[in-house]
Amino acid sequence: YNPNDSRLVINNRIGTNSSINVARTSGKILMGSLILLILAMPFTGVLLGSIGNREIGLELTETYIVSTCGSSEYTVAFEEIEKAELLEKLPDNMIRTYGTGMENLLRGNFSAEGIGEMKVCLDPNHAPFILITTHGNKHYLFGSRDAGLTNQIYDQLELKLDRSK
Q1: Are 118 and 37 in a shared domain?
Q2: Total domain count, the chain
Q3: pLDDT band, very low/low/confident/very high, at 164 (cuts 50, 70, 90)
Q4: Most buried residue, 8, 57, 157, 165, by CB count within 10 Å?
């Protein structure tokens, strides 16, 4: 603490350590910010836990398949779908390029060997998953936390796609 020293980071008198000069306004702001950041850390885990446990929705409308993960929504029109597959496990070597990759939530843009880039909205712990390929060669990988619902949506999707051919 030295109000006459203009440096923000100062060397300790003994040893090789350094500290913040809290006599300066910028030193007080920096120390206050660090204290607030440290105090907020326990609440960060609670926030991240709530994000991972948000509902994952999967539904069919008259003209679309809709997958929702929290505030994200992915919609694919039936007329755009070239094919749909039911996967019992996730594709190999999935890499997140943008989005969320948590233990119980995958959401955003991913890429996988043999498929390429795809939009993903699912819980990786709850198979099966629906892989949709559009006529424009876009890929979507959807799932829900209810295997029965995912199978039911896939069966209904297949019926709608067969009727439109």
Answers
A1: no
A2: 2
A3: low
A4: 157
